[in-house]
Amino acid sequence: MTRYVMVVDESRCIGCQSCTVACRTWNQLPMDIIYNPVVSEGVKGTFPNVYRSWTPTQCMHCANPECVPCCPTGASQQDPDGTVWVDYSKCMGCKVCVNACPYGMRDVSHMVPRFDQYVRKCTFCRDRRKQDPSAEPYCVATCHQRARVFGDLDDPNSEVSKLIGTNKTERIFTELGTDPQIYYIPEMGGGAR
Amino acid sequence: MKHHYWEAPIVLYLFLGGLGGGIFFLSMVFDLIVAPGSGPLFFAPVFFALAALALGCFFLVFELGQPPVFWRVFTTKTAIIKWGAVLLSFAMIFGFVWWLSYLYLLGWGEWTLGLASALEGARPVLLGIAGVCGFGIMVYTGVMLSTLKAHAFWATPALPVLFTISALSTACAAIALSLGGAVEAGGFGLVVEELIHGIVHVVDVVLVIAEIVVLLIMVLSFYGAGNVTARAVAVRWVRGRTAPLFWGGMIGAGLVLPLLLYIFGEGTAASALVAPILVLCGGLLLRYLCVYSDERAPIPGEERFYARLPKKDAEFLTAWKQGENRY
Amino acid sequence: MGNEIDIHAPGVEMRKSLCYFCHANCGVLSYVKDGQVIKIEGDPNYANQGGLCCRGNSALLHLTHPGRINHALKRVGKKGEGKWEKIPYDQAIEEIAERLNQIKAESGAEAVATAGGTTRTDDWARRRFMNQFGSPNGFHNALLCWIPTFMAETCVAGWSPFETDLGSAKVVMLWGMNPGASSLGAMRGYTDLQKNGMKIMVVDPRYSETASKADLWLPLRPGSDSALALAMLHTIIFEGLYDRAFVNDWCQDFDQLREHMKQYTPDWAAPLTWLTPQQIRNAARMYAGNKPGCIQWGCTWDQLGTASTTTSLTLALMRAVCGNLDVPGGDGMPGPALNFLTDEEMEANECLPEEQKAKQIGSDKFKLTSWPGYTLISDNAKRTWGKTLPAEWFCEAHGPSVFKAIITGDPYQVRALIVNATNPVNSYGDAKMTLEALKQCEFLVTVEYWMTPTALLSDYVLPAAGALERPTIVTHYGATDSFLGGKRAIQPLYDRHTDMTFWRKLGLACGQDPAMWPWETEEEAYYHILKPLGLPISCYDEFVDKFRMYYPPLHQNKFVTNGGFWTPSGKVECNSTILQELGYPGMPTYMGCSENEVDDPEVAEKYPLVLTTGGGFMPYHHSEHFQMPSIRYLYPDPYFTINPVKADELKIAEGDWCWIETRRGRIKMRANVQAELDPRVVYVPRGWWFPERDGSADLDNPFGCLESNTNVLTSVDVEDCDPMGGSWANRGLLCRVYKCTDSDCTFRAADAQWSIPGSSSEPGVTVMPSQQKLAREPIPFTMPEMEPAPEGFYRVWQSGELYQEGTHFRLDPTGWVINPRTKGYHDAYTGWRYDPATELLVDDETGKSYTMDREEVVYRGGVRCYPGQEAPFEVPEQLTWNQVDGFAQLPGKPYVYDPASGWLVDPDTGDFHEAYYGWLYDAATGNLVDEATGTRYDMGYNPIVEEETQAEATGDAMEEEGGAQ
């Protein structure tokens, strides 16, 4: 089996938002749709004893997604490889999945014609992988810092498996039982500490 | 983290759906159990129920991103929304046919009588199905929100209870306002109507009290012991920006005041007219307050990210139009 | 719907391009179908390893943005009114050329100036035009970006040691540099190496993206870099942390330096830098104690105003005395490109007369980076490397002084300005004065992508081809020996033209010699540049496809093989003789930044906060990309940063609009309340303007170009500029910050009134630029008495060596002159090269050879002849010596005997003949042929029987048939 996951190394991320813009342009998204915001709480602490980190977010492609069973049309679905995606030809834009996602990673655009709105979200670049099975999601390919790593968790030799195996990783909102599949290697406070 | 993916149409839909469902359910209870034969009296309330559901459905479909393909809602088996849609459809279809069977009350001529005689035997079944579906609708509106556990303020069992009580309460109010409409009742009919009015009155008093209790329990328990997100909403309700609406509008004007009018103004227009209208407004306000309490726990830093994004009407978003080259 | 564009579909061609949005020039793969770029992605096989930033990823949107200028625009309304007529490109060029020629005829060529911004490529074309036109007044933002540093470093060691060899380094010092927000590819390298143990030191007042990953962060007072650098060098010298062996062998005047540095103790620097002496010492120990280490150049060095070159000079010496120059793991000195053409060789600098060079504006003051300093440095480079650095960038007019000259006519009236690839209002200092200059400029031409404030005020706006529409090469301002290239994905859209095409067309229209502009396209020019490499390519695109990059064999420790550094003395000059000759201190001598609380306490009283500006930030680059909605959406408003403690004190909350005010004006920005800097400091990002607005609506502030523009706050006054390099003051200025109130929240013209010198209280010109004093008086330099040089030679005072005029070859005591590039000996009179293999002199221009008596050597069929001489070799007995023509021959045959091979050569055909009978050697069969009879012989002189050959031939044919069956 194949289980696609992403490992995000926060110790490498410098918050440039290249992945955010890259995703918007590659997927030709309307202006108000952002699949993968890079968020940060800003600088913590008191000058000069300070600390900061960035969290590149995106759809967590949960093993137990909230957004799939709630969909009344079956548009919101999950591939056997774990990819959660929306079939636009089935979506009617009821936004129940948008409300269901605990990570806020789905939305309809308000900058398209009012009655042509469907739910969009990160697809782990399903289209790229369909065209070329070895392709990585574009946010991964475009990251100068290699902060994002994509791969098959079921393959013990994959880079993601090794990273998860050798690093302490964290996931977001595991308490909701969604079993998110984006693994974060936390920033431990810069090289200085 | 607040996005308001659902807005006013959903508020109206949840209110109207609950109201319509409640009327069907109560109509069934009265016509089939409490006061058999009181069907004609419910001709007008069921009409309003149908209108409410139809309008609710309109708002629901209007709120869709792609209204022309609303029928896709029926394409899966499991989703709660799908069940809501099925219940709505059944309630409306069976309720409508039941209502047709009493169309003769309007004196529209021979064919209405024919319709009535043809459907007479099926009336209990029709109303039974519509009533059961109506009950389902009342419950489902709350259940749907409460299963969206991303929103801490919704994800509580108290919410479906509250919505159900509110639906019944507003249905009582609507019935109180419209019972017997279109029927020139006399004699026994008048007695039944009085009886039903009495029961509805008492039931609504009980429901309003129950609603106050459930609402306060829900909000105050979130206020005292909710998680960060839910508590933040509760704080907003109890002593924040929405406190005037909550205490003054919802609790005061929507529940306590009609309760007092029901109890102390019995027999007056205040009890018969003003109080039910207030209850209806209170029901709408409850949906409004709840739907707009869709706060989600933010990923740390997320709020800062979204706070910096431009307003939807920022000049640079509209200054250039693709394809219209300037120079 | 989703992404339906399939880059793997048939008919899609992948073209290797380079990004064109900053000078990192990352590799880009463009997918082209039917002449349209359908997708781009980062090139995984290039230095960026597939990475692209926000800007690079937006290239397609940039290409087709509706705000792009697509046609030549001629102003038809009043200046700035925004009324344009679209005219054909060539017509615009003709009209512009006519006007330029008219101005040249009336006021001299120097009345025409040109402004550029940051480097991309092909700036040699601009210089080639200007040199032929005769104007010395071209300029860029060079002085804020590397050039003064490069010149100071070259004074110390002979070239800028800018190519860090990080792979073997133990420590890297990132000083005033934030790759985490400005050069992401580099940041990845730092991160990878840091994970492998390299230490990263960051010197930055801000807890920048890079600082947040650093091993050591030195949050100094903005602008106090010179004090910190001096105190670190003091520590390194007096704690004995320097490389003694290197200093002994390779450094000149180190003792003088040590004596001079005594005063700059960490205790002296602590109050200036706001660091503790211990922090300074630790930093010095960390750098010097982890050898080899690198110091990466940072923009800050060149943006400190008065203290700029002092800082870079100190740092140049710091890495030198630590022995980190040009060693593995240290800072590599590439030198000029010796194997392909340098930018300088493309510039045609010989076309600019000396008297025009002397008219270069600012060259009387800021000598290091204009013709006086460039001439010293460049001549020295020619003497040491054999090639030199480009004049473009490294030898330019002082931009702000040109703008002032447009307004004041001081030193003379500049009447025309060609603006190419810059929006000076936002990118040059003192924006309000610059804007006024653009308004007052008699004839303004702008070559642009966008309708910038500058374009709006222009008489002609010409459309520029940008990313994907032009091939791109990377040679680091033409100052390195490597070459990277990318193809264009498509030809320019609409009537857009590349910069080189613009300058070429303009040059030809101005009447310049077509022979001087032989290349119609960049590809032709680049091929010309690359040809000397001798690669198996027939055009530029083939270079990209087959090679993409050229790196010379890595040669470190070149100073050892070279026998010295590339300075006049051949050593690292701790007391630079070139700087002394220019009238500057040869050793770093402390100077505070342009405004500071120590030197200007009365200013600090009114403006208590320290302002730092000019830092790069994602996703913008300089003043670019504010039009790109997908980028702007993520960063829609200008934010300045202030510490929460100070924000509290000033009652400023996150997101509040605030005024930031210096003595020169005020701007408004929103507050980013973050503990990333000292409470006494505010950080203001650069570049902001609002292209979405109607520019003509408010000509006091077109496109909001002053409203949130940090350069309203900066100073270009002569006394605020670096007295050596001329860079103006961006960092460490004094300011105050206060919240916008309801009654005071709109930007008005009075908030940014123009003035010379910069002052918000005295508008207009109050002191003429030529009356303004430099921050440091020049130190008179007297050339030491020297023995006069013989005619045709000149003497270098530092070494006393004689060099040949013109070639800059050194005169050896043997009487030969030596070519520094090849180390080859040349004849001093003729310039002919001595070829040790043939022991002849070779004229490389004609390819002819000469004897040591300078007599031409005659060759026949490639065999050297000795006309009129006796045979210099033993002539075989069957041959006769032809005394007249000087070769041995078979009697009656014209063939020339080659003593090296023993064969006869037919000088007409080049065919070989054997030396007994003169039979022709048939290389195809390996036979000898008697041409008279047609008889064939094998090499043993045995005749070959005809039948056999036929039989063989038949056999072959049959075999072939068999094979075919």
The largest β sheet of chain C comes out as: 7 strands, mixed
Q: Quick one: CATH class of chain B?
A: Mainly Alpha
Distance between the termini of chain C: 59 Å
Strand content of chain B: under 5%
The CATH homologous superfamily of chain B corresponds to Formate dehydrogenase/DMSO reductase domain
Q: Could you tell me the strand content of chain C as a percent range?
A: 15-25%
Query: Which strands sit side by side, in order, in the main sheet of chain C?
Result: 5-4-17-16-15-6-7
Instruction: Tell me the number of strands of chain C.
Output: 47
Q: Measure the end-to-end span of chain B.
A: 42 Å
Structural class of chain B: mainly alpha
- Mean pLDDT of chain C, rounded to whole units? 93
Low-confidence stretches of chain B: none
Q: Treating each run of at least 4 consecutive H or I residues as one helix, how many helices of chain C? A: 29
What pattern of helices and strands is seen along the backbone of chain B? HHHHHHHHHHHH
TL;DR of this structure?
The complex is a heterotrimer of chains A (193), B (327) and C (965). By secondary structure, chain B is an all-alpha fold.
Provide keyphrases for this structure.
heterotrimer, B: 327 residues, mainly alpha, Formate dehydrogenase/DMSO reductase fold, C: 965 residues, alpha/beta, Rossmann fold, Dimethylsulfoxide Reductase, domain 2, Barwin-like endoglucanases, seven-stranded mixed beta sheet, six-stranded mixed barrel, 29 helices, 47 strands, 18% strand, globular, disordered C terminus
